[in-house]
User: What shape does this take?
Amino acid sequence: MSLYRDTGVVLRVHKLGEADRIITLLTRRNGKVRAVAKGVRRTTSRFGARLEPFGHVDVQFYTGRTLDVVTQVQTVDAFALPIVGDYQAYTAAAAIVETADRLAAEEEEPALKLYLLVVGALRALAGGQRDPSLVLDAFLLRAMAFAGWEPALTECARCGERGPHAAFNVQAGGLLCPRCRIPGSVHPAPEVLAVMAALLHGDWPLAEDSSHTVRRDVSGLVAAHLQWHLERRLRSLPFVERRAREAPLTAALGSDPHPDGGEPDIGDVDSDVDSDVDSGVDSGEDAGDTDAGGEPSATGGATPGTAATSVDGHGTGQCAR
Ligand SMILES: [Zn+2]
Assistant: This one.
């Protein structure tokens, strides 16, 4: 049996049998790791409470035949407590860990940048100093940049001509110049694009100086951009796996399977996410699945649409305030 240690954030938790849980962590050195935590649902468990979603923990594992097994847990940052106590922060955090889970698709593929983004975002949410919806949008924009989907916010997404440009098209990848503009583009206010750029680059004073209306439109565009790319990736995946050499992912993403469809409706973000969110974190021993959003999945596979639901839900929570 071989042991290893790593620091990670708990993305989600599933029941396993009577007393065990499968913990999905995004770790600093080993990327996404799924491991069994034995006996953690018993009241006598030494580390059950430390392995709740949003926990930032230092973990010792031993390498099992199928899944690794958690043998020690120390808390690095107890983010869960303040986050779970604030509904808006909680919905933002749930969207963050679910997005991170989706983006870190391959287990044990290093994703240090993504790990640091998740820790930074959860730290900001737990600290309570910033608007949770801005924290979430900053995370999503940077996480999309990590995934190679950074929206074009100054230059034209197609020809690269320098802006400012008025038309924004999610399918095209961001702003479009007058020559490249296609039907179905939206025209966000210049302040919306400025706040998106500020969040992407960490200019908090500019981002926090924005109005509620601007923040709502930012959230709508960010959610639409993320949803488009996540769903695209999932739809493309079987195709890419079958024909990986002849048709690289970029080619698969280049064609538009539904022109005129899927246009973002900025600001209109109603969804039934509340019921999903309410079934999330619960530290009660008999409280069933503590998956922070999304469907329990024995295979760990991504479930189409769940991230989009959480992102929409973030918009809903934000507007309710
Ligand atoms: Zn252009």
